[in-house]
Amino acid sequence: MTSVVLAACHVSRLVSGVAATIFIGRQLGNVGFGVVSAAMATVGLVMALSDFGIPSAHVVMASRHHRRPEIYTQAGVYLMSALGLVGALLVVAIAWWFSGSENFGSVAVYTMVFTLPLVLQGGQLYFSGLHATGYSSRAAMIGTAIVVLGAITRMVAAIYGSSPGQQLMLMAFEMLVGALLGWCLIASVLLRKPRWKRLAVASRHLLRQALKTAVQGQAESLFLKVEVIILGAFGLVALAGDYAAAMKLLEIALQLATYLLVPLIPRLARIVKNRDQQASSAFMAQSVGMLGLLGWCLMIGMMFLGPFTVNLLYGSSFSTSGYAVIPFSLAVLPMILFQFNSRVALLVGGAKRNISALFFVGLMKAVVLSLVLHWMPDVTGSAIVFCFGAWLVWYVSACKNVSCRELAMYQRTGMWAWMVSSEARLHLKGWLAQTKRTGDILPN
Question: Do residues 186 and 126 lie in contact, with contact meaning Cβ atoms separated by under 8 Å?
Fold first, then answer.
């Protein structure tokens, strides 16, 4: 039942997010949508940096100490509140910078609203605590209700002619509702008298655990958002809107793949823990085959239907977005496999190489895109830069990961069999046959 609830919540979030994006894009046009996208990408980096991966670390630590998880909740709230204050100051600096910009001056004041969910971001730990104690479905339903209601509110505002700044403010209030609800429900834990020595120990454990995923999360966020930020910095907000509209299809494809990774990675973690090398190799080959099949289907579908879909949904003001869909479709397959490779690296080693690749390739994309925009400001050129970056980070994560050579073994390239080796295809056929017999999409 829990898996059904989680699947329903995932679909609800996906549909409401796509619908809100289309409504807002059509109402604001490519210029207004570009302002919103670039501003939100910049603020989103600050917000991702401010939580430092502590909610994910809290799930792990509270699960390990399920009899006394309160100490980790208290430590996490104090840490996130301190980091949120720093993030709020950074948002104030961004708002000040926006105020002097011709394109972003109208949204500078509205950007300040994001300081509230940042200062109160410790409330997120209530929901991570539900995941840690086995109530994932409850956390998913509460979070989905907030997201869906927020999306409906933003769509209604778009129908009645909202401005880019008002849309940003509504996004900030959506985050604020979740933070305030979390604070109300977690208050009983925080009212207990803290034991400072235990809090210090718990804080160190949380930070140590958070470091394992936080840096990689920041690197991935920067890699995905650097083009929109660069376009906004160059003042090309219309191109930023076209770029964001085309990239939405890639984001949907990655969300579908990430949902498949949710059951795959814990199962692989259990196999790795048991030190069964044969089972681990077989499961990785099967997983690569599954993700490769999904990636090929999404890539081909997006390539042929994506341009028409973007122009149909967003309207004539996004006419150039259709051309950018083709490079994004070519980036679907490497990005899906990179998501898998990066999570495998966290289990077996090699995460540092992937993180370095994300930062290095992200910086390289920023430099190359700056040169491209100087000579030829075009949304398709920006998407091509992203596509080359996606293939490069996949190559590093698969073929240059010396800690897990099997990833390269199962992801070979060739004229007729790109990305999936013959062994991975063999395990894929076995998985399809077993799934047909048992009716279980992930048979043991």
Answer: yes
Residues 6 or more apart whose CB falls under 8 angstroms from that of 124 comprise: 51, 55, 80, 178, 179, 182
Q: Residue 32: pLDDT above 60?
A: yes
Comparing CA positions, the residue from 287, 290, 300 lying closest to residue 330 is 300
Reduce the DSSP state of residue 420 to 3 states and report it.
Answer: coil
Return the pLDDT at 388: 92
In this predicted structure, the answer to whether residue 249 has a pLDDT above a threshold of 70 is yes
The DSSP secondary structure of 259-295, one letter per residue, reads: HHHHHHHHHHHHHHHTT-HHHHHHHHHHHHHHHHHHH
> How far is residue 427's CA from residue 419's CA, in Å, rounded to a whole number?
14
Does position 1 have pLDDT exceeding 60, yes or no? no
pTM above 0.90, yes or no: no
Mutual orientation of helices 2-51 and 277-314 as an angle, nearest 10°?
80
Q: How confident is the model at residue 415 (pLDDT cuts 50, 70, 90)?
A: very low
Instruction: State the virtual CA torsion across 265, 390, 14, 41 in degrees, nearest 10.
Output: 120
The percent of residues in the chain predicted with pLDDT above 70, rounded, is 82
- Distance separating alpha carbons of residues 427 and 409, to the nearest angstrom: 13
Instruction: Copy the structure tokens of residue 230.
Output: 């660069």
Task: Supply 296's token pair.
Answer: 């090929």
Q: Mean pLDDT, to the nearest integer, of 21-30?
A: 84
pLDDT at res. 386: 92
- Distance of alpha carbon 111 from alpha carbon 115, whole angstroms: 8
Residue keyed to tokens 């660069």: 230
Identity (one letter) of the amino acid at 118? L
Token pair of 344, please? 């495998």
Q: Coil, strand or helix: which one is 103?
A: coil
